[in-house]
Sequence to fold (285 residues):
Amino acid sequence: MDLSVVIVNYGTFELTKNAVNSILDYSYPFTVEIIVADNNSPDDSLSKLKEYFNDKVKFIASSENKGFAAGNNLALRQLNSKYVLLLNSDTIVWQHTLENIYNFMEDNPDVGACGCQVLLEDNSLDKACKRSFPNVKNSFFRLFHIPTKSSDDNYNLDNLDDNGTYEIDCLTGAFIFTRKKVLDEVGLLDETFFMYGEDIDLCYRIKQAGWTIIYYGKEKITHFKGSSSKKQRPKLIYEFYHAMYIYYKKHHAKESNILINIVVYFGIALLCVLKLFLNIFKKKN
Fold:
């Protein structure tokens, strides 16, 4: 198989159906398979998806929900394709995106992973699709919404053309097009991350292994991301900040002194508590 597309489903029948159809709607000059890994959905979305797609899609079912990274890995362990696309269930892939990124990867063998322009429902850019790696300094500017003109501290790379093609540090887990041999080399997603952060960690390991990561802004997907103005499940808020803690401890704590580490851990905990408190007053979905 040339390309395996992995989508994790967790009670999102309509979203997953639309994401899969956005791929099946087109033909490709290479072989494509779609694998839906179900994370023990609490509803009948898996059975409905099986009935709807029949033999057009492969399904893998987990007996428990161990998180987004674990759901992806369930499928990744069974693949033997040249390329892998990690795709969120709440996305729509545009017509030529897969073909053109596939061709780009074929023409650039030094590229380990590639992303595209990710648009939100209102057509604005999902800034997570092109990022620097988080560090103490740029995280401080971002989390406290302090503007900076320094490209060194620009986590979201706002200074770079959204339609351009260039090397970056980090892609969004909503769309990561990578080589199977890269995953064989650096390992699968780190299942310590239940949700959030696993994409940053994977990109970090890919870059550490000497591969290039490219933002290919000529092609696009749409990402139906939840609105930040609406109430979130407390567990998701906790997992977001827990992912920050895991990533920092794994990749940066050893190179920082104990005082810096204490400040970082305290800051993450404080922001988590503040976010949980403010979330109480937001409107329900």
In short: DSSP finds nine helices and nine strands in the chain. The longest strand covers residues 212-223. The first helix runs from residue 13 to 24. The two ends are 40 Å apart (CA to CA).
